[in-house]
Amino acid sequence: MSIRTKIFTTDNFPVPSEWIFEKFLNLKEKLTGQSVSIHSIFNREDKNPSMVLFLSNKGRYRFKDFSANIEGDGVELIQLIYGLETRQKAFVKVYDLYLEDDGENITSLPLIKIEKEIINVENREWNVLDKNYWTAYHISASDLEHHNIKAIKSYTFKMTQGEIVKNMEFKKQLCYGFYRADGTLYKIYNPQEDKSKFIKILKSIQGHDQLEYKGEWLMILASMKDLITFKKLGFPNIECVAPESENVMLTKAQVDFYKTKYKLITVLFDNDKAGRESMVRYNEELGIHPILFDIEKDVAECVKEHGIRNSQYFLMEVLLKRKNEILNLTLSTG
Questions:
Q1: Quick check: is 239 in a domain?
Q2: Does residue 54 surpass a pLDDT of 90?
């Protein structure tokens, strides 16, 4: 048995950076100084090639994955792929595979999934920034309290990938926790972020805990913010829920339960391509009729831009017309 004593560094590592990327990313072309764009190997939903391979000013190839917000050199790529705790272990892994190279591409990489877990959440008191944000949508502190929404000072992710374990603390100026009635955190909302605006922790139907089952009509909305602002409009006999997102449908069992409580169930999502497509799915798969509202992108934005009174006026006509259409359709096909 041989004992390895050599410590590798970036400067003394004998494996060409081109070899690492060509082999482990199964490139169809040799790297000879050009930049190459490929689909992200870290984000399986990457629709446009967002992972770029480029030659650094030190003459070594590096990568930048814009989709997953990851970058580094070839050794860091291998460290991520195999979930290795240290860079030295990644050096050794690459070196051993380089010595065993049989000229074929490596086609079965065991890309180790990154597991994320929220291990600490610190709440804080409400401040003026919170007030300015929520009151723009006519949402008050009592509305937030009723729906178990709290301001968050910081939260910590435990990131595990193979041997790699990291704790990452995040502090946001505007950050909120959505809690169930029993105090369990199910979602974190970062309104100022794009990629991490919503962090789902547990499955939940937003607004379900607040249902009283006194109305005749259940409205399915796109978000908690839409849900609260819709309720502020004060339409009688309408109660509201919202799924985790427009892309996550309620199950048939959940809808069947609601059908035992309400005479009418409709869905009102965002007035954009994604929202309209989701409403079509609800109609086709669950038989829930859509309501199209095109004054603004969604209910919350309508209230923000036009106020409570005007939004009531805009929506009243749409709701009454659509309700009559659905009831007439039900009677004619029943």
A1: yes
A2: yes
Instruction: Using the Cα atoms of residue 24, residue 29, residue 30 and residue 36 in order, give the sign of their dihedral.
Output: negative
pLDDT class of 103 with cuts at 50, 70, 90:
low
Higher pLDDT, 283 or 328: 283
- Boundary-marking domain end, from 185, 204, 223: 204
**3, part of any domain:** no
Angle at 187 between CA 170 and CA 259, to 5 degrees: 170
Q: What residue ranges in 174-256 does DSSP mark as E strands?
A: 176-179, 185-189, 198-200, 217-221, 238-241
User: Containing H/E element for 123?
Assistant: strand 115-123
Specify whether 70 is located in the same domain as 137.
Answer: no
CA distance 266 to 329: 14
pLDDT of residue 3 exceeding 50, the answer is: no
**Exposed/middle/buried for 73, CB within 10 Å: 0-12, 13-18, 19+?**
buried
Longest Cα separation, the chain? 83
Tens digit of each residue's pLDDT (9 = 90 or more) over 244-290? 988 889 999 999 999 999 999 999 999 999 999 999 999 999 999 99
Structurally, the chain folds into a number of domains equal to 3
